[in-house]
Automatic annotation (TrEMBL):
Zn(2+) binds at residues 356, 428, 444. This is Multifunctional fusion protein. It comes from Bifidobacterium reuteri DSM 23975. Catalyzes the specific phosphorylation of the 3-hydroxyl group of shikimic acid using ATP as a cosubstrate. Catalyzes the conversion of 3-deoxy-D-arabino-heptulosonate 7-phosphate (DAHP) to dehydroquinate (DHQ). It holds the Pfam family DHQ_synthase. The gene is aroB. Belongs to the sugar phosphate cyclases superfamily. Dehydroquinate synthase family. Belongs to the shikimate kinase family. The keyword Transmembrane does not apply. One of its GO terms (cellular component) is cytoplasm. Monomer. Binds 1 Mg(2+) ion per subunit. Keywords: Amino-acid biosynthesis, Aromatic amino acid biosynthesis, ATP-binding, Cobalt, Cytoplasm, Kinase, Lyase, Magnesium, Metal-binding, Multifunctional enzyme, NAD, Nucleotide-binding, Transferase, Zinc.
């Protein structure tokens, strides 16, 4: 089987493709190939001489053949010449490489730095004449194409070659889930160390002002986001909201609307939500309602937010009557799940996120459950200070990616929760009732864990699943450190709240239950005695 490059680096002349590529290869102990040097070996002369003798079309033909050969059978870092991605056959080769999991890195250097390096290097036939004018003209032609053919965009302004190489490695190792579907503007969920570095790329050049909405506990991460935004040339309004569910109220939203009005936010400006699920829910709601919808990006900082709240376009606030009853379906421009932020999470807040991860395993992807089983001890003993660089980091990144893929599958065909998307609510009917009765002192993932055990008990009572699968729910969730029972309220109180659930139809209860691992069904209007008996079974 043929091998493929770790990364392919493209960019303008003088962007530092060779220097940075060599640094990346050195840091990773991989081989490095420069396409121009390979071409000179192939034709037996220097590129300027070949250009003079045979012309650009002949050169591009040789270049395309060399690139195709290297892409098919090379495992290192591969740097292309400045004009190479403009050739249609090379564009097709790069697209195929990306489809097979490859990373085409557009090294986007500061124009002044790049022009100076290009002039200093000499031997560039494309810059004959007024070199700076030619460079600018070529940049205008090539930049849109480079953005189109690459799937990793690395700004290197002001970075040393070593700094740029480290940034390339971080961004290449990140995972991405593409979310698209009916009524959805496509966007990516990027997962991994340094994902937040993509903030300016996702926001784009249009916004001038950014409302950075965050909570106090994530100050360290919001400071980093603010720095990145200012480096990107944006004017930043820093908006701190109360932590967790108290931040999701109409009062908080109204205060932000007033600020946006006072500070002259227009339809072309944007919102960045940074924090846990409550912060990203509120930020999305503000973005959806300001001027009937402005661009927004989510930067989730908790495991729960990364796997749940930040993806899928559900935004909302709580009212006295319940959770998320006021809101909008409004998709973000992107989600940047930067795993470095997990290093500041307390153990209990990390663990509650595993409730939503397990849910995705139960409803669609059994491999999630196998990973949770294999790593239950390490996950339960999560220590943020020891997390980065540990083997657990890669495990958690895979769990996040798989969970987001489950969510993307359900959301892509049902943005507004008319059918398939409701299956994401496995464990939520009782879970939301527990949260309300506990005045939101219980964390969402913990309430969902108990809700899944309840749903499993109900499914078993009605003959959908066997006792072994109920026991498996209890054993796995317990091994992860999640609760599997609850004694905080009466059945009558719970029943009243379950009737208010968004899945309920008229006066009839509606549950999501399993009929096997990885397969869910709707359960409409189950017998009242089974609903009560299942509740009794989660009280001890």
């Amino acid at each position: 089987m043929s091998s493929r490059p770790y990364a392919v680096i493209i960019g303008m002349m003088g962007a530092g493709k060779t220097r940075v590529g060599k640094e990346v290869a050195h840091m990773l102990r991989l081989p490095f190939i420069d396409a121009d040097i390979e071409i000179e070996h192939e034709v037996g002369m220097k590129i300027p001489d070949y250009f003079d003798r045979y012309g650009e079309p002949a050169f591009r033909e040789v270049e395309a053949d060399v690139i195709a050969d290297v892409l098919a059978d090379f495992e290192g870092v591969f740097s292309l010449g400045g004009g190479a991605p403009m050739t249609p056959s090379t564009q097709r080769e790069l697209a195929s490489y990306i489809r097979h999991g490859g990373k085409v890195v557009y090294l986007d250097a500061d124009p002044r730095e790049a022009m100076e390096r290009a002039n200093r290097g000499g031997g560039r036939p494309m810059l004959n004449g007024d070199a700076n004018a030619r460079w600018k003209k070529l940049h205008a032609q090539r930049d849109p194409v480079f953005r189109e053919v690459s799937n990793v965009h690395v700004h290197t302004h002001g970075l040393t070659p070593q700094g740029a190489a480290k940034k390339v490695i971080d961004m290449v190792s990140q995972r991405a889930v593409h979310v698209e579907g009916a009524a959805i503007d496509p966007y990516d969920v990027v997962i991994g160390e340094g994902a937040m570095n993509r903030l300016a790329d996702v926001l784009g050049p249009k916004p001038a002002k950014i409302a950075l909405i965050h909570t106090q506990p994530v100050q360290r991460h919001s400071d980093r986001a603010r720095t990145l935004l200012r480096q990107g040339g944006y004017e930043v309004s820093d908006i701190v909201i109360p932590d967790a569910e108290p931040g999701k109220t109409i009062t908080v939203a109204n205060g932000i609307w007033e600020r946006l009005g006072d500070e002259g936010f227009t339809r072309s400006d944007a919102v960045v939500g940074l924090g846990g699920g409550a912060a990203t829910d509120l930020a999305g709601f503000v973005a959806a309602t300001w001027m009937r919808g402005i661009r927004y990006v989510n930067c989730p900082t908790s495991l729960l937010a990364m796997v749940d709240a930040s993806t899928g376009g559900k935004t909302g606030i709580n009212t006295q009557q319940g959770k998320n009853l006021v809101g909008s379906f409004y998709t973000p421009a992107g989600v940047l799940a930067d795993t470095t932020t997990l290093s500041s999470l307390p153990n209990d807040i990390f663990i509650e996120g595993l409730g939503e991860v397990a849910k995705s395993g139960f409803i669609r992807d059994p491999e999630i459950l196998h990973i949770l089983e294999r790593h239950a001890d390490e996950l339960r003993l999560f220590d943020g200070q020891a997390f980065l660089g540990s083997p657990l980091e890669e495990t958690v990144a895979e769990l996040i990616e798989r969970t987001v893929r489950v969510k993307a599958y359900h959301v892509s065909s049902d943005l507004k929760e008319k059918g398939l998307r409701e299956f994401l609510n496995y464990g939520h009917t009782l879970g939301h009732a527990i949260e309300k009765l506990e005045h939101f002192r219980w964390r969402h993932g913990n309430a969902v864990a108990v809700g899944m055990v309840y749903a499993a008990e109900l499914a078993h009572l009605l003959g959908y699943i066997d006792q072994d699968l109920v026991d498996y729910h209890r054993a796995l969730l317990s091994a992860l450190g999640l609760p599997i029972s609850w004694n905080g309220g009466s059945f009558e109180d719970v029943l009243a709240l379950m009737h208010r659930d968004k899945k309920a139809r008229g006066n009839k209860l509606r549950f999501v239950v399993l009929d096997s691992i990885g397969h869910v069904v709707h359960l409409d209007n189950p017998p009242a005695d089974a609903v009560e008996e299942a509740f009794r079974r989660i009280q001890h």
